[in-house]
Structures are given as C-alpha cells and as structure tokens.
C-alpha cells in the first residue's frame, strides 16, 4: 500500500494562486507595521487558501510488476560460422532457465533478422520489441551476437545494455575487398581491378601478401598486396561475353574463416564496333536492304562498295567523271583485310571483279580466323561461280543441278535449325515466300539451318580452318523488307547470322553456361547432338561436388537448377569436356567484410561484455538493473479539511482580526 497527500482544488489553481497573492500582501504589510490582528488575518486567509486547495489523504493498493529483460538474438549470416549458433542457443537457454526460477523477471526474446545491405543492424529489431514493453519495467537489453553490429552507435544509453559475444575472445579475419570491379570491358583492351586486403583484429599493417587473379578458373595475374593499401591489377579482355574473375589470397594464420579471403565477379567483354565489309558484285534490289539492315545495328561499322563496271569495260566518258571513289582493291584485300571482322560478298562472281590472288587472300583470311558470308544469285550456277575460284575451298556449299530454281517457296527452319541458336527462335513460324534460289550441295561438316524450294538448302553455316563461313543461296532476302504480304524477319535473322560470325556467346551452337540468381544456380547446355542429354558435375566453392541430370526444355537446350543457399564464391560446372563458372555473391556484402567476433562496436556502450566461449551459461541477474515497477489495483481518498467547517473557521479568524483591529483603534 502506498499513501500520499493529493489535492482536489475547489477552484482552478490560477484563481487560488491569485487570491493567495492578493491576500498575502496586506497581511505581510500589517505584520511589518505591527498592526493589531495581523496574525489572525494571516491565519484566516491561510486556512481559506488551504481549504480551496482541497487537500486529501490518498491510499493506493498496488501489485508488483516483474522486471522485463529484452534478449536480442543475432540471426545474421555471419552467425553461421563455426559454433556461433550453438553458443547463442546455449546462452539463451541459460538466461531462460535463470528467469524461470523466479516471477520477478520476465524474458522477452526477439531475433535480429538478416538484411539485404548494411551489415548486421540491431536497431530495427530493438525498436520493434520496445514498442510492446513498458519503459518502467525494462531492466536491461541483452544482445547475443558476434559483435559485428553496424548501427551500435544508436543503442540507448539510459537502459543497461549487455553483449554476449559468441566467441572465446577477440578473433582475427582476413578480407579481400573489391574496391572497383568493372562490369564490362572492350575486347582487346585492359581494364583495371582495384582491391584491398584487410587483416581484421591483427596488428600487421604493411605486411605483404600475394594475390592471385583467375579468369574462368585460369590464372591470369599475380600481384603483391600490402595489407590495408589499395592494389590495382590489369585485366586484358580476350573475348566477348561473360567471364568470371576471381581474386584470392592465402588465409591468415588463426583467422576465423576463409570465406572472404576471395572475391569474384562477372566481367562482360564487348566489342566496341564490329567492322563489316560488304562488297556488291553489281547493283541489285537487295543491296539497299543489306545496307539498311547492317546500318541499323549499332554494333556494326559498315564499309560498302558496289562494283558498277568491270575493270576492262570500255566507257565513253573521262574516268574522272565516272569513278568518283576508286575501288581500293589492294588496300581492302591485301594490306587491310585483317582489320575486318566479317566480309560479305553480295551476288559476287569471279569474272574479273577481283584478281585471283585477292580471292586467295580472302580464303586465307577465313582459314586464319576470319568470317565470310556470301549471298548468291544466278551467277553462282554460272561458269564464273565463286565455287570455281580460289575462294571455293572455304565456301560451305557448291552449286549443283538444276542450278537456278525459279518458283515461289516459303523458307523453312530445319530440325537442325530448330536446335541452333541462330534460327531456333524462328522455328514453327510460317515465313513469307521468296521467288528464286540456287541449288547447291552442302560441304562436309556444314550445317543446313534453312531450306527452300524442293527442300533444297537455303542457309548454310560452317567452318573453314579457324574461321567461319556461311552462304545464303538466294538473292531474295530483300523481299522480307518490303512489308505487306512479303514481310518477314529479315532484320533479326540477319543480325543473328552476323553476330554468330562474330562469335557472340549466346549464339554458339555448342555451349555450357552457368548463372546464379536469387540463390539458385541455373545450368544451361546448348547442343546440336540429337542423342543428348547428359549429366553435369557441379563443384561447390568449398570443393564438394554434385552430379545433376540435365533436362530438355527446348530443342537442343537442356537445363538444371540447384539451390546455392548461403554459399558464396565461385561455382564450377563441368560437362563433356566443357566448363562454365558462376559467381555467388552474398546478399549483404557488408556482412562478410569482417567476420571476426569483436567487442569494439559495443565497447563504451555495453555495461557488461561476456565472451560465451569463456562463460557459456551466463546468469541473468548481474545483467539487469531492478526497476521495482508496480501496478495500482485500488485507491481510497479522504478530505483532510471539510470545506464548510473549515470555511467557517477561516471566516471567524478574519472577523476576529477585523474586530481586534477596530477595537484597538477605538
């Protein structure tokens, strides 16, 4: 029971205060001048003021409330290391057992959940839990954590805070941090990778440690890094498409983990501009279509020449008035041929348009890794066909009877074309008709992706030496660019053909890729082999392996998926001699920067710091400050001065003072 004096004023407090001041001043003046009745007047007004204040004696019956201890348990990713969760569970069980021995303390447990950025953040969980706790009951806040708290500076200072750290003492950890990881680079150039090695919890600033950089698992650079100082490493871009870059350093002796001793990212190589040479054997209806299609591709830089007359053809005008731009035969096909990524010959024949040695140069260019695409018309079946020139050995087809076929036909994607990335997206479509094509026999090893009239080959792709070659056995592609009844996928088809020649990874017929998104590894195998599928072997970042069967999802395409959970690092996928790599990046990179358990973040804030490796079952009592909070269950109140009798007494005192003052004056 709690008893105390309360007031229930009969008038508002400002009114009572005003009356008290107005009456006190004359009384004090009377006392100062020693006038008779001054004390009686003061006593009367004092009784009147106290009566108006309404003093009461109040007695409350109360019930003691338990103290509340808030326990926050760290569930962030860094707690998955070693036995940290086991330490946390053991400590929580000890606190719960200690609280269960008495009704004086109630334990509230809340998790510190993992977040997507910013490291371990305790304040959101703390504020949410405090919203349901009376402040006068909160006896203490206890955090069971590894100490890697990014927002510890915002913890309240008016409530006892204790940190139970899941380690035996301060730990050490080596981190390789990518300061600047380029996401793309131009093929043939070098990009700069900036990284820094940190040794957390170790006093070894200035120590030199080796760093190894790999590209798709193959070492490409080594360097010496000074601990705590940035290091730049140059990375050459060898080819277009994605490549996994990984940097690693030897582990620090005694470090708590080697997870962050390596860092990886995906770098995509891109071509700045693809140099394409288009040579038209004569003006034709498809010439404009080729130009429009190639110029519409921002990745292509086009050089186009049209041969308007034969070199020995007589003319009746001054050559200076006819050949405004001389055809630079020697520059194009001898000195500068190597700077082109692709040569396209449009309706071209061997009738004195180019000397035989230049056609041989083109053939050698292809054999050494160049690319050649030819679009042919009736000239292909004639006596001056390119098939009979020095260029013939690198062409993917040779003309055959009946030669030129003149009839309407709709191009059709072959079963092989339905599996090939260049034409797979057009399989099953009804394509608009063309009007003419050339009969030809594919060269050994060539691939017929489209057929035309009488099921004759129409689009053939193949290889010659180190290079690539292709042929379109019709000069009617331009019909698809006219719109209306002849509208067709001229631009997407040509773009895919051109980029296949330029080795775009997404258009490779035989390929193995691996990607990681939303904590799931996806394996994609493309092949033209109709007897596929097979199995893929996955190598985890920690060296473990797992075999996954691949399932067909489309013609020539087989996939499989695997959860990657919290494993970070480089994943390797192998299948039939092919290898692909994928990077699993942590959802919250800051969480993995420093994995060493430490008290530095809470030092100066926490009243108690307990290392659970030394004291695995801490007692609850020493971590709290008792609050002695109570809840009022009942109340009784009695007036100390009954208003009416007390007012009469005050009136009598004031009257007596007046009488005494007047009696004295008479």
Description:
This protein has 666 residues and is α/β, with parallel strands linked by helices. The chain folds into 5 domains: 2-63 and 632-665, no CATH class; 66-170 and 597-628, Rossmann fold (3-Layer(aba) Sandwich); 173-271, Immunoglobulin-like, CATH 2.60.40; 282-291 and 306-340 and 348-501, Rossmann fold; 511-584, Immunoglobulin-like (Sandwich). 20% of the residues lie in helices and 36% in strands. It is built from 11 helices and 34 strands. Strands 16-15-17-18-24-23-22-20 form an 8-stranded mixed sheet. β15, α5 and β16 (300-306) form a beta-alpha-beta unit. α1 (13-32) packs antiparallel against α2 (38-53), α2 packs antiparallel against α11 and α7 (329-335) packs parallel to α8 (356-367). The protein is elongated, with a radius of gyration of 45 Å. It starts with a strand and ends with a helix.
């Amino acid at each position: 029971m709690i008893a105390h004096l309360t007031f229930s004023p009969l008038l508002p407090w400002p009114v009572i205060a005003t009356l008290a001041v107005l009456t006190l001043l004359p009384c004090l003046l009377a006392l100062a001048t020693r006038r008779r009745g001054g004390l009686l007047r003061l006593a009367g007004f004092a009784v009147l003021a106290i009566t108006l204040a309404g003093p009461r004696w109040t007695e409350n019956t109360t019930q003691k409330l338990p103290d509340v201890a808030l326990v926050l348990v760290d569930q962030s990713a860094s707690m998955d290391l070693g036995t940290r969760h086991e330490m946390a569970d053991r400590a929580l069980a000890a606190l719960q057992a200690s609280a269960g021995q008495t009704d004086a303390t109630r334990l509230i447990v809340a998790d510190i959940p993992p977040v997507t950025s910013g490291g371990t953040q305790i304040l959101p969980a703390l504020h949410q839990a405090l919203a349901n706790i009376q402040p006068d009951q909160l006896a203490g806040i206890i955090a069971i954590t590894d100490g890697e708290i990014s927002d510890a500076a915002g913890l309240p200072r008016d409530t006892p805070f204790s940190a139970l750290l899941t380690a035996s003492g301060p730990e050490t950890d080596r981190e390789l941090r990518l300061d600047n990881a380029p996401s793309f680079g131009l093929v043939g150039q070098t990009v700069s990778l900036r990284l820094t090695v940190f040794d957390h919890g170790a006093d070894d600033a200035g120590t030199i440690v080796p760093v190894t950089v790999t590209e798709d698992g193959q070492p490409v650079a080594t360097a010496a890094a000074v601990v705590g100082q940035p290091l730049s490493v140059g990375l050459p871009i060898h080819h277009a498409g994605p490549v996994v870059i990984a940097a690693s350093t030897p582990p620090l002796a005694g470090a708590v983990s080697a997870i962050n001793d390596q860092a990886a990212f995906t770098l995509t190589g891109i071509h700045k501009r693809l140099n394409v040479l288009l040579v038209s054997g004569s003006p034709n209806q498809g010439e404009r279509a080729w130009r429009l299609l190639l110029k519409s591709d921002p990745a292509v830089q086009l050089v186009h020449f049209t041969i308007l007359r034969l070199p020995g053809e007589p003319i009746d005008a001054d050559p200076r008035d006819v050949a405004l731009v001389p055809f630079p035969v020697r520059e194009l096909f001898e000195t500068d041929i190597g700077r082109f990524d692709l040569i396209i010959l449009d309706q071209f024949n061997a009738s004195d348009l180019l000397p035989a040695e230049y056609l041989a140069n083109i053939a050698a260019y292809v054999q050494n890794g160049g690319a050649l695409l030819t679009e042919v018309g009736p000239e292909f079946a004639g006596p001056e066909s390119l098939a009979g020139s020095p260029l013939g050995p690198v062409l993917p087809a040779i003309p055959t009877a009946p030669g030129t076929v003149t009839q309407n036909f709709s191009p059709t994607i072959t079963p092989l074309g339905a599996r090939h990335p260049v034409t797979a997206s057009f399989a099953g479509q009804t394509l608009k008709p063309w009007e003419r094509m050339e009969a030809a026999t594919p060269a050994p090893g060539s691939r017929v992706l489209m057929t035309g009239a009488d099921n004759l080959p129409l689009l053939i792709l193949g290889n010659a030496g180190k290079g690539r070659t292709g042929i379109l056995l019709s000069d009617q592609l331009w019909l698809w660019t006219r719109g209306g009844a002849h509208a067709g996928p001229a631009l997407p088809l040509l773009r895919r053909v051109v980029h296949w020649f330029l080795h775009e990874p997404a258009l490779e017929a035989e390929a193995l890729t691996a990607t990681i998104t939303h904590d799931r590894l996806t394996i994609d195998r493309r092949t033209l082999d109709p007897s596929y599928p097979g199995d893929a072997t996955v190598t985890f970042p920690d060296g473990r392996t797992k075999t996954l069967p691949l399932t067909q999802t489309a013609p020539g395409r087989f996939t499989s998926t695997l959860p990657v959970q919290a494993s970070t690092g480089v994943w390797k996928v192998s299948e039939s001699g092919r290898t692909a790599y994928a990077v699993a990046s942590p959802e919250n990179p800051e969480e993995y920067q420093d994995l060493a358990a430490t008290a530095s973040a809470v030092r100066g804030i926490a009243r108690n710091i307990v290392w659970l490796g030394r004291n695995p079952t801490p007692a609850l009592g020493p971590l709290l400050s008792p609050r002695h909070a109570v809840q009022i269950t009942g109340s009784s109140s009695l007036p100390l001065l009954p208003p009416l009798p007390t007012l009469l007494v005050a009136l009598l005192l004031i009257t007596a003072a007046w009488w005494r003052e007047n009696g004295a004056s008479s």
